[in-house]
Design goal:
It is found in: Cytoplasm. Helix 7 runs antiparallel to helix 8. By secondary structure, this protein is an alpha+beta fold. The relative contact order is 0.06.
C-alpha cells in the first residue's frame, strides 16, 4: 500500500515535525511492514525554480515544432532554453530546472547546444518530474504563483513524503488511507476524521437501473448510482493524478481514476460501466459451466462454476470483484455511466483470483476484507467528484441491495489479556484500547465487545487480546527466554532418515522437496484400483490452488511431477528421491465440536480432536530415468532400469541399519508399477514398500519416458536398527564353496538365498548369487542358480569335513523347501 504523508494528514492530526524515523517506528509497532519512506523533494536534485517566459522564437526546419525561449528564473540575466512544448505563451509562469540539476531516474541537466541554439536548463512537464503521466505539455502555473526564482517544489507538490507499507493478509482495512490514518491516530492518540463519515442518500423505492442478486452469499451488498451527460474529454485533476502516481497507479480516464482514487482512500473497490452498452438489467450470480468472458486485459477466460459474475442480457460482462469485461468498459466517447460499489465474499474472490491468475488491486483488498458499510458513501463521493470535473446530471435514484449481517458480539473475560500477555491490563484499560480500535465495549469483569464493520478479522477473544497487546505496545512486553532443557539430539527416526538421505546422495540421487498437494485425478493417473485405500485423500478447506485441493497419500505423484519438470528443462538423466509424510485419513471418524481458545482443552477433548487427524507416516520415494552410468571414452553407458530401483530400496534399508540377511525381495503386482517388473521389499517377512518399473499407462499420464522406474518405502514400517556390536575380525582363512542348484523357474532367487543362509548355520559368513543358467538339458521349467558360499570360524581354521557338512545342510534345506537338486549330482 503506497500513500503520501500529506494525504494522511488530511484525516489524522500527526505531530507537525514528525520525522521519517518516527513514522517508520509507529507503522512498524502497529504491525505494518515498512518497505520505504521517501522524501519526494529529494527525487529532484539541484535548482528547481519558478520561471516566467519572456520571449518565444519559433524555430523551423526541424521534424517537429521547436521553441527558443528566454526565461526569467530570478537570476541576474534571463536563461535561454530550447523547448518542444507548445501549450504556453509569453508571460506564463513555468517550472524550470537549471544546469546541474537531476530529474527522477538519474537524468542530469546541463548546458548544451541543441537545434542550433544554446539551452541552459529545461522547462519541465509533470511527467518529467514524476508527478503524473501527462506528456502533452509543460506545467503552466496559475497567475498567482510565486515570483520567478522561488523554489518550485512546494508549488507543484514535490515537498511530500512517499510511504510504502506491506499489509499482512489479516488486516485488509489498512489497505487504504482511511485505515492507515486511523491506525496512526490510535498510536499517537491524536484526532482522526473518518473520510467515509459523510452523509450519503439511502436506497430509493425506484432504482436507476434494474439489478437482481441471485447469490447473496457471494455478494451480500450491491449498490449503484447513475450519472448522465458527462464530458467524455474531461481530464482527472492534477492533484488526483499526483496521488494515483504516488500510489503506483497510472491515470487512465476521469471515471476510472475516481474509482481507483476512492479504492486507495476508502479501501472500497468500485467499477464503472458504460450505461449505453448495457443490454437490459443486471444479474449477479455464479457463472455457468463453460461460460466465457473477455476481461479488460484482452484475455478470453473460461469461467468456473464458483466464479461470481455480473451479467446483462448478453451474458457475463464482469468477473465480479476481480476485473471488468471488455463489452461494458468505459470508452473515450462514454457520456452515461453506472457506478457500482458492492461487498463480495473474500473467500470466493481469493479463489477466483488464484484460479484465473488475476491478482488485481481490487482482488487483493476483497480477499483481505472490505468494510461492508462503505458502498453508499463511496458512491456519493464518486458522483460528487465526477460531476465537479466532468459535469453531467446525477440520477437521484439509488440502488442498494443490502443483506449484510452485523458483526457478532464477542465475550471477553477482562482478565484474559493479562493472563496471555503477561502484563497487568486492568479492565478499564482493556476497554479503552479496544474502543480506540473502533469496538463497542460494555461490561466490567466480562466484557461484551462488538467489532466495527471494518474489522472482519476480529472473530474470537484471542483476536481482541492481540489488539490489546498491539496497541498497548509490543515493546512493553518483556523478553523472557524459555528455560534451556537438556537435549538428546536427534531422535532415532531422524537419524535413520538422515542416514538414508546420505546413502542415496552418495549413490548419485538428488534430494527434492515437493508440496504435499495433489489434484483429484492423481489416483487415476497412478492407476490405483477403485478399492485402493490410497484413493481416500484429505481435502483442504482453503487450498493454495483449486487444481490441487488434496493432500498426498503417496510421495510418487508430486515426485513424478518434479521429474517431468526437470525433463522439460532439458535434463535427460535424472535420479531423484524425497522423504516426507503422506496423509492417510480416518474414514470412519466424525469431527468433534470446535474447541474454544479461552481455556486449555481437557484430555478428553484432545483425544476426541485427535481422532480426525490423519495418520502421517514417513515415506521414501525414488524415481530415475535415462542413463545411470553415462557413456564416454571409457565405453557405452548403462540405462537405468527396474533393478536399479530395487537396488536403491536395498541401499535405503541398509542405511537404516537393517542387515541384508533380514531383507527380502519377491515379485509382486502393485500400482503404479508394471505387473511383470515390480517387486515388494520385505524386512523380517513384512512388506515395507515396492520398487520396479512404472506401468506404461502411468508413464503416459505423466508424460515420462519409457522404462522410468521408481520405489516407495514406508520408513515407519522399518523396525529400529539393532544395536551393532562390532564383531571381532577373524584372522583365520575362509573356505569358499560354490553350489549350483536346479529348481523350478518360479522359485524366487531371494527365497533360495534366505534358505541357504538359514541352513548353513553360524559358520556361514556370506552367500552371493553369481550365475543364472537355463537350458533344455535341465528340464522343462527348470533353471540353475549358482551361489558362492563363504565359511569362516572366528577361532580356528575350518576342516574340510566341517565346511562340507555346513554346505550339505544348506543344500538340504533348499531341497526340502523347493525341491532343489545339486546340478551335476
Amino acid at each position: 500500500m503506497k500513500t503520501t504523508l500529506s494525504w494522511l494528514r488530511e484525516y489524522v492530526e500527526l505531530p507537525a515535525g514528525i520525522t521519517a524515523s518516527e513514522l517508520d517506528t509507529a507503522l512498524t509497532n502497529l504491525g505494518m511492514e515498512v518497505e520505504s519512506i521517501v522524501d519526494q523533494s529529494a527525487t529532484v536534485l539541484g535548482d528547481l525554480v519558478v520561471g516566467r517566459v519572456l520571449t518565444i522564437e519559433e524555430l523551423t526546419g526541424f521534424k517537429k515544432p521547436i521553441r527558443f525561449c528566454t526565461v526569467d528564473v530570478g537570476r541576474d540575466a534571463p536563461q535561454e532554453i530550447v523547448c518542444g512544448a507548445r501549450n504556453f505563451a509569453e508571460g506564463d509562469l513555468v517550472v524550470v530546472i537549471l544546469p546541474g540539476g537531476e530529474l527522477p531516474g538519474g537524468f542530469r541537466i546541463g548546458a548544451r547546444k541543441t537545434y542550433g541554439r544554446n539551452s541552459n536548463g529545461m522547462i519541465c512537464s509533470a511527467a518529467e518530474l514524476g508527478l503524473s503521466g501527462d506528456h502533452s505539455g509543460i506545467i503552466v502555473l496559475p497567475a498567482g504563483a510565486p515570483a520567478p526564482g522561488t523554489d518550485a517544489r512546494p508549488v507543484v507538490g514535490l515537498d511530500d513524503v512517499l510511504i510504502d507499507v506491506e499489509i499482512t493478509p489479516d488486516r485488509g482495512y489498512e489497505m487504504s488511507v482511511r485505515g492507515i490514518a486511523r491506525e496512526l491516530a490510535t498510536y499517537f492518540a491524536v484526532g482522526y476524521t473518518d473520510p467515509a463519515s459523510g452523509a450519503a442518500p439511502g436506497a430509493t423505492a425506484d432504482v436507476p437501473h434494474p439489478v437482481v442478486v441471485e447469490d447473496t452469499v457471494g455478494c451480500d451488498r450491491f449498490a449503484a448510482r447513475v450519472v448522465r451527460g458527462i464530458d467524455p474529454s474531461a481530464q482527472s485533476p492534477e492533484w488526483m493524478q499526483r496521488r494515483l502516481i504516488a500510489a503506483g497507479i497510472r491515470a487512465i480516464s476521469l471515471p476510472v481514476d475516481i474509482t481507483n482514487y476512492l479504492m486507495l482512500e476508502y479501501g472500497q473497490p468500485m467499477h464503472v460501466f458504460d450505461l449505453d452498452r448495457l443490454r437490459g438489467g443486471l444479474v449477479v450470480r455464479r457463472a455457468q459451466p463453460a461460460e466465457k468472458l473477455t476481461t479488460l486485459d484482452g484475455v478470453a477466460r473460461e469461467l468456473d462454476a464458483e466464479d461470481m459474475v455480473i451479467c446483462d442480457e448478453t451474458g457475463p460482462i464482469s468477473l465480479a470483484a476481480v476485473m471488468g469485461g471488455e463489452t461494458s468498459e468505459w470508452q473515450q466517447g462514454t457520456v452515461n455511466v453506472l457506478l457500482e460499489a458492492a461487498h463480495w465474499d473474500p473467500v470466493m474472490v481469493g479463489r477466483t483470483a488464484r484460479r484465473h491468475k488475476l491478482f488485481s488491486e481490487a482482488a487483493k483488498r476483497w480477499e483481505r476484507g472490505v468494510d461492508p458499510q462503505l458502498p453508499l458513501v463511496a458512491l456519493q463521493r464518486a458522483v460528487e467528484i465526477l460531476t465537479t470535473h466532468a459535469g453531467g446530471t446525477v440520477d437521484d435514484r439509488v440502488l442498494d441491495i443490502d443483506h449484510v449481517v452485523a458483526p457478532s458480539p464477542i465475550t471477553l473475560p477482562a482478565s484474559l489479556p493479562s493472563r496471555l500477555i503477561g502484563l497487568d491490563y486492568p479492565a478499564d484499560r482493556v476497554a479503552e484500547l479496544l474502543a480506540r480500535v473502533g469496538c463497542q465495549v460494555t461490561g466490567e469483569d466480562e466484557l461484551t465487545v462488538t467489532p466495527p464493520s471494518w474489522r472482519p478479522d476480529l472473530l474470537a477473544p484471542i483476536d481482541l487480546v492481540e489488539e490489546v497487546a498491539r496497541l498497548g505496545g509490543y515493546n512493553d512486553i518483556p523478553s523472557v527466554l524459555p528455560p534451556a532443557g537438556s537435549s538428546n539430539g536427534l531422535t532415532p527416526a531422524q537419524r535413520q532418515r538422515r542416514s538414508i538421505g546420505r546413502a542415496l546422495a552418495e549413490n548419485g540421487y538428488v534430494e527434492v522437496l515437493s508440496y504435499p498437494f495433489v489434484a483429484p485425478g492423481t489416483a487415476d493417473a497412478l492407476g490405483l484400483a477403485a478399492n485402493d485405500p490410497r484413493r481416500s485423500a484429505v481435502r483442504l478447506t482453503n487450498p493454495l490452488s483449486e487444481e490441487e485441493p488434496l493432500l498426498r497419500t503417496s510421495l510418487l505423484a508430486p515426485l513424478l511431477g518434479t521429474l517431468k519438470r526437470n525433463l522439460g528443462r532439458g535434463r535427460r538423466d535424472v535420479a531423484l528421491f524425497e522423504t516426507g509424510t503422506v496423509f492417510l485419513p480416518h474414514l470412519t471418524a466424525t469431527a468433534p465440536p470446535a474447541l474454544g481458545v479461552d481455556r486449555r482443552p481437557t484430555d478428553e477433548e484432545w483425544a476426541a480432536a485427535n481422532t480426525i487427524v490423519p495418520e502421517q507416516p514417513w515415506h521414501l520415494a525414488v524415481v530415475l530415468t535415462g542413463d545411470l552410468d553415462p557413456a564416454g571414452w571409457w565405453g557405452d553407458g548403462r540405462a537405468a532400469g527396474w533393478a536399479d530401483a530395487i537396488e536403491a530400496a536395498r541401499v535405503a534399508v541398509a542405511a537404516a541399519g537393517i542387515p541384508a540377511s533380514r531383507v527380502g525381495v519377491r515379485a509382486a503386482e502393485h500400482a503404479p508399477w508394471h505387473p511383470g517388473r515390480c517387486a515388494e521389499i520385505l524386512v523380517d517377512g513384512n512388506v515395507i514398500g515396492h520398487a520396479g518399473e512404472l506401468h506404461p499407462s502411468v508413464l503416459a499420464a505423466f508424460d515420462l519416458p519409457k522404462r522410468t522406474s521408481a520405489a516407495e518405502l514406508d520408513l515407519d514400517a522399518i523396525p529400529a536398527a539393532p544395536v551393532i556390536d562390532a564383531p571381532r575380525i577373524s584372522t583365520f582363512p575362509a573356505a569358499l564353496i560354490d553350489v549350483a542348484l536346479v529348481l523350478d523357474r518360479t522359485v524366487p532367487a531371494g527365497d533360495v538365498h534366505a534358505a541357504l543362509a538359514e541352513g548353513a548355520g553360524e559358520l556361514l559368513e556370506s552367500v552371493a548369487l553369481f550365475d543364472v543358467y537355463e537350458s533344455e538339458q535341465l528340464g522343462e521349467g527348470k533353471r540353475s542358480l549358482a551361489y558362492k558360499l563363504t565359511f569362516r570360524a572366528p577361532d580356528r581354521t575350518l576342516t574340510s569335513e566341517e565346511t562340507i557338512a555346513a554346505r550339505d545342510a544348506a543344500v538340504a534345506l533348499t531341497a526340502s523347501r523347493f525341491g532343489a537338486t545339486l546340478r551335476g549330482a
